[in-house]
Amino acid sequence: xxxxxxxRKRRGAAxxxxxxxxxxxxxxxxxxxxxxxxxTAEAGVAKMSLYNNFSSKSDLVRAYLDARHEEWLALYRHRxxxxxxxxxxxxxxxxxxxxxxxxxxxxGFRGCGLLNAAAELPAGDEGRDVVRRHKEExxxxxxxxxxxxxxxxPERARLTAEHLxxxxxxxxxxxxxxxxxxxxxxxxxxxxxLLDRLRADRx
Length: 203
Prior knowledge:
Mean pLDDT: 91
Radius of gyration: 19 Å
Structural class: mainly alpha
Oligomer: single chain
Order of helices and strands: HHHHHHHHH
Strand content: under 5%
């Protein structure tokens, strides 16, 4: 006989509430400043429920980092769905960053939630590796589109992807300090100009 799905459903709902509450508090207040009690109070669940779903606060932080990146990937895929070519594929990455910046945050945009969290984590913490892998994935997405734009020059595509990743992250940092996505708009314009020059240089 199999058990009722209801307890599993309730556990799943509690996990989602905890993760959503952690995301709000970690982004608004910081990882270190946010205690377990604040998260469970905002989620409206008992503290035991948190430990039934996450082995520790560190486990919850890693789940938050993964969820935030998946949130960005969903924005990117939505933008990519209307991209007509490799150039627009690159710009879809920039647009997804801008969409994330323009989301409704409790205290406004504070920069990249992944990098904000990583800055609070000690060297060697698994959470920093999670953030590094996510950032590498973004650069890989850029490189993939650029290989379509520069099919005969993979090395230039790789270097340009690195260049654009630096532009994107720098603009995000400045946008976070200013609490608005204007710098990301400027970065997109710079990226579009660079892509147009690359296309014009092709034989």
